[in-house]
Amino acid sequence: MNATVYIKQLAAQLGFDYCGIAAAVQLDDDARRLESWLNKGMHGNMQYMENHFDKRIDPRKLVDGAKSVITLLFNYYPGERQREDAPQVSKYAYGEDYHEVIRARLKTMLARMQEQFGQVQGRGFVDSAPVLERAWAQRSGLGWIGKNGNLIHKQAGSFFFIATLITDLELEYDGPVADFCGTCRRCLDACPTSAIVAPGVVDGSRCISYFTIELKEQLIPEQMQGKFDNWFFGCDTCQDVCPWNRFSKAHNEAAFTPLPEILNFSTSDWEEMTEETFKEVFRRSPLKRSKYAGIRRNLRFWKMNRGS
User: Fold this and answer.
1) What tens digit of pLDDT does each residue of 182-218 get?
2) Exposure of 138 by Cβ count < 10 A (0-12 exposed, 13-18 middle, 19+ buried)?
3) Is residue 19 a known part of a binding site?
4) 3-state class percentages of the chain: helix first, strand second, coil last, to nearest 5
5) Is 220 assigned to a binding site?
6) 78 near 29, Cβ under 8 Å?
7) Which residues are catalytic?
8) Is the pLDDT of residue 52 over 90?
9) Which residues pair with 75 in a beta bridge?
10) 3-class secondary-structure state, position 22
């Protein structure tokens, strides 16, 4: 079987919703954009974004002899929602930690490719290494980078995890698609902290997700008070208002089934939760990234934000 056809069929068998492939080359334009973004300090305290710049822009520095970058999209749009009066959690964190779920699929995918084609070299990544996932997704025809900085698929919106598999197999390559944001600016106008400073440019140091997940300080800056709407772990506002997400459909991945606690916890349930309970309930959840202390901090800020 044609290798490209085999890989795309394999991706579907493993539960990925879309698969695109691009030639492994240096990303010169993206390198310039990334360098400008870093120089303006838009990564805030995320110092790791400064590391391995050469690897971020050239996949051949991650996999020797790399010829192809396979990009895969995995839908996480939930069919259920939290109660509206409770502190809101970004939809990507409703179920199990996506890193573990998708990493296992990538390992299986590479193993199957090696069984089929012999000595194939490759590495799979899911938001855990210096890889410009959205740039590769765009180059492989899986969508365009919207004004909110997210990859948008014309038929399915933006509620996807992006994974990449870099390999030394030479494959048939897809081409980019057009940008269909047009004159729409709903995401720019709706961003609670005005973090979208220009079409496609997000000041990470102003994003609610940065403050509630990435920031490790004990306190969230006072100047952000009153600007978080109802969010206390991550933020989906720029995706929720995007017209293209009217095409989003609920996923059917068991591992991403929402935790009952996330759907049903009231504010008092979050307040009364002990560290022991947190570690037990959220041991396989993305919320563990903030740790118990971070969740408590976020909750205190959320209450101040709500004037309660």
Assistant:
1) 999 999 999 999 999 999 999 999 999 999 999 988 8
2) buried
3) no
4) 45, 15, 45
5) no
6) no
7) 127
8) no
9) 160
10) strand
3-state secondary structure 118-166: CCCCEEEECCCCCCCHHHHHHHCCCCEECCCCCEEECCCECCEEEEEEE
The per-residue pLDDT for range 67-96, each reduced to its tens digit, is 999 999 999 999 999 999 999 999 999 999
Q: How many residues are present in the chain? A: 308
Which residues, listed in sequence order, are joined to residue 147 by a DSSP beta bridge? Answer: none
Confirm or deny that 150 is annotated as ligand binding: no
Cite the DSSP H helix spans in the chain: 3-13, 28-39, 53-57, 98-117, 133-139, 186-190, 208-209, 237-240, 260-264, 267-272, 275-281, 291-305
Assigned token pair, 15: 């539960």
Instruction: Give residue for tokens 């009066």.
Output: 85
- Residue closest to 18 by CA, chosen among 210, 153, 165, 217: 153
What are the tokens at 149? 């900085």
The verdict on whether residue 56 carries a ligand-binding annotation is yes
Please give the model's pTM, rounded to 2 decimal places: 0.95
Characterize the bridge pairing of strands 68-75 and 144-145.
Answer: unpaired
**C-beta separation of 37 from 136 below 8 A:** no
Which pair of structure tokens corresponds to residue 247?
Answer: 């095409």
CA distance 296 to 270: 9
Q: Is the pLDDT of residue 308 over 90?
A: no
- Cβ-based burial of 241 (10 A; exposed 0-12, middle 13-18, buried ≥19): middle
Encoded amino acid at 250, one letter: A
Domain boundaries, the chain: 1-175+184-308
The span from the CA of 269 to the CA of 66, in Å, is 50
